[in-house]
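Hello K.,

You asked for the raw outputs rather than the summary table, so here they are, unedited. I folded two proteins back to back in the same session to keep the settings identical. This is the first:
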Amino acid sequence: MPKAYSIDLRQKIVDAYDRGDVSQRGLAKQFGVATSFVQKLLKQRRETGNIRPKIRRGQIPPKLNEEHQEILAGLVKANNDATLAQLCEQLEAKTGIRVGITTMHKTLKKMNFSLKKNLLSRSQSK
């Protein structure tokens, strides 16, 4: 996870902006940050009165727990030529949990299943 910009840098950007001699884009270039960061920093100061980095919350837990992954492994073994979309539908029918194709792909990859030529199989690299 990238580190937040220091309070010192944030203060320098805000001070330069308050002097009024440089645009937000110019500030971004001068301080080597994204223009969107300058915009967000100034908005945060306007709305909250501070420029401290926001506290990051923990990651969102995975949608599919170990039990769901076991069910998914069974679905793959029973129907190894199913597409990702079909596996999403089958998993929803079994568990009531709907996941998208991207989540399905990432989960199968994490479980060491690979998708090759429309065929799901256990990866040989273990």
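The second followed immediately with the same parameters:
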Amino acid sequence: MTHAVVLIKAEREALPILGGQLAEIEGVAEAYSVTGQWDFVAILRVRDPAGVHAVVTGEFSKLDGIKDSETMLAFEAFSQHDLEALFSIGN
């Protein structure tokens, strides 16, 4: 399984609908509207890196309103349980 985080800048007109459109795409596990430099974050969970390519350059490119994006492939995934153990102090 390959995980990726995609940061997305949207055209102003697309802000009300783009999040729902992103979430409907196969391979997008979660889509968030966020504050800051980017407008949306899409979390991808696909079979392999080729799946990331298929979603980002294939499916996302079909959507109106995406101005820019940055894709980051995850090297390693940590569950909430793993993160709590990593940052716990003597527990």
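The chain has three helices and four strands.

Happy to rerun anything if the numbers look odd on your end.

Regards,
P.
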